[in-house]
TrEMBL record, chain A:
The keyword Nucleus does not apply. One of its GO terms (biological process) is carbohydrate transport. SUPFAM superfamilies: MOP-like, P-loop containing nucleoside triphosphate hydrolases. InterPro entries: AAA+_ATPase, ABC_transporter-like_ATP-bd, ABC_transporter-like_CS, ABC_transpr_MalK-like, ABC_transpr_MalK/UgpC-like, Mo/tungstate-bd_C_term_dom, NA-bd_OB-fold, OB_MalK-like. Belongs to the ABC transporter superfamily. It comes from the Bacteria. It comes from Shinella granuli. It is a peripheral membrane protein. Keywords: ATP-binding, Nucleotide-binding, Transport. GO terms for cellular component: ATP-binding cassette (ABC) transporter complex, substrate-binding subunit-containing. It is found in: Cell inner membrane. This is Carbohydrate ABC transporter ATP-binding protein (CUT1 family). One of its GO terms (molecular function) is ATP hydrolysis activity. Transmembrane segments: none annotated.
Automatic annotation (TrEMBL), chain B:
InterPro entries: BP-dep_ABC_trans_perm, MetI-like, MetI-like_sf. One of its GO terms (biological process) is transmembrane transport. It is found in: Cell membrane. This is Carbohydrate ABC transporter membrane protein 2 (CUT1 family). It is a multi-pass membrane protein.
Amino acid sequence: MASIDIQDIRKSFGAFSVLHGVDLTIRDGEFIVLVGPSGCGKSTLLRMIAGLEDVTSGDIRIDGKRVNDLAPKDRDIAMVFQSYALYPHMSVADNMSYSLKLRRTAKEKIASAVGGAAAKLGLDPLLERRPRALSGGQRQRVAMGRAIVRQPKAFLFDEPLSNLDARLREQMRAEIKKLHGDLHATSIYVTHDQIEAMTLADRIVAMHAGVVQQVGTPLDLYDRPANLFVAGFIGSPGMNFFEGRYLVSGDHADLRLANGVTLPVPRRAGIESGATATLGIRPEHVVLDAHGALEAKVDLIEPTGFGIIMHVSIHDVPMKIFTLDRAMLDPGPAVRVDLPQERLHLFGTQGQRVE
Amino acid sequence: MRSKPFLTVAHRLAILAYIVVALFPLFWLLKVSVTPNDLLYSEGVRMWPSRATFEHYTFVIAHSAFPTFFKNSLIVAGSTAVAVTILASLAGYALSRFRFRAKYWIVALMLITQMFPLVMLVAPIFKMLSPLGLTNSLTGLIIVYTAFNVPFATFLMQSFFDGIPKDLEEAAMIDGATQFVAFRQIILPLTLPGIAATLGFVFTAAWSELLFALMLISGNDAATFPVGLLTFVSKFSVDFGQMMAAGILALIPACLFFLLIQRYLVQGLTAGAVKG
Ligand SMILES: Nc1ncnc2c1ncn2[C@@H]1O[C@H](COP(=O)(O)OP(=O)(O)OP(=O)(O)O)[C@@H](O)[C@H]1O
Ligand SMILES: [Mg+2]
């Protein structure tokens, strides 16, 4: 196991710049999840750590040793590909033992390592099969097995579960978490899936357009998103935003929307009166209250089984509400809501969080 | 789905008709090769002679230069096939996997070589080979055939490599292989169908090539079999029986060769490599 230290990493493909200076320190045994929209450079960063992509500038250190110019084979890192990338002409056992054979490990050692990994992942009955005779979930397991047999310094996962159906994904997610609990291996995991990110991560790294937006525990990102991007990206259904002008009058403050409506907001030191600002509140934090301060017209009701997503509008500004109250399946044409002050997020002109 | 007997029958008949048309010349080759000389012109058009004989075969094998032609052809076609396949595999892999300067121009040049009618090139090539002592030699033929087959074979192999996901060799490199080991142990085994196709294609092309063989080789010692066939044409007559017998014999290696590689030709080895 090892720590990974990334310093001001940049990457360009020709003139096209993909990563614009990424800094990240990953502690030994930590589970890091990289999230971000498609094309923001997650895979590129992962592949640079693996050595599959040259580093344009900056340093990558594994266990304190600079690895920029080291071939993938000398970095002692395992990677699980989205496509699994199993060797089709080899049996499951051979797939799993290939890395050990390349390192000229003793036969008995290989057998026990493969046996151990197979037992952990329930692959025992499949060891003699070829990959094409496996289901998607089984292939996924073999790919995991191939990574864990040789006890590398770190694991890299590039959307390993995205080809599985929802049920299987849930199951594998739990297994990966359990596996990490057993092995305490330094891991970097790329995903699009919110729940995977929230449940697996020790820390989440949110990326956008080749720049790290925020690094923190899942609850950090949920409770105190550093900027508008993170606020909108983490959480489902996504956060509601109201754009307007932040106005201080006396000892309280308001946000005046373009259509003239004012919403009371907490006073914050980090922003000047008169500046444009964005107010955010998560759908699950909007309070439905018959005596609420605001009237909201109901546009659409989406029952999810677990709860209900209500699409409403406040003076023609759309907003979503998430509630567990079944009575809201038939709320009538309008409801009254409150936006609790302690749940409000305020973002400044540049989209940065203001306290 | 309910099968429609009429369509099935029509389908089979169409295939049968095609096979008959395609194989009829071969049958005629066989028929003439076993027809005794005295019956060849006397019996009219018959599907099978009233009396069959192997005398043409024994004559061709025992008393003509045919075994030499045969041996020469085997050497030339075999060496060419192996040399081209090795070169084309390496070049095709490079074109498929590496980004390098002048790649575009290399591809363009290779395509240009394919644009000229071969007849145009006979004289210059003869001019180049003769000071090197490579005319009238099997080595010369092998070099020329290899040069002419490499471009196409390279594109063929490149398309096979393109069909193999890059993830596979990246996975191998992370597992601890160098690029070359990944090529040899992971990619090459998956390209066997492509290699078999290339071998087969080049072998048959070299086996039946006539133009350069005719122009670069004089005399029987270094003649390949297509050239050798012409020796059955004398000034006054054509010995059809012996010629056909030689033709039938010449088919054997090509058939054997394809029998040997057909296992790889039909194999879809990459199935199951990635998500399914
Ligand atoms: N070999 C390459 N040559 C040129 N551009 C590339 C190359 N590889 C990736 N890119 C570009 O780099 C950017 C980041 O790609 P990357 O694969 O890292 O995105 P990602 O965050 O993993 O996206 P996704 O979530 O869709 O997998 C994209 O705009 C992509 O087009
Ligand atoms: Mg990606």
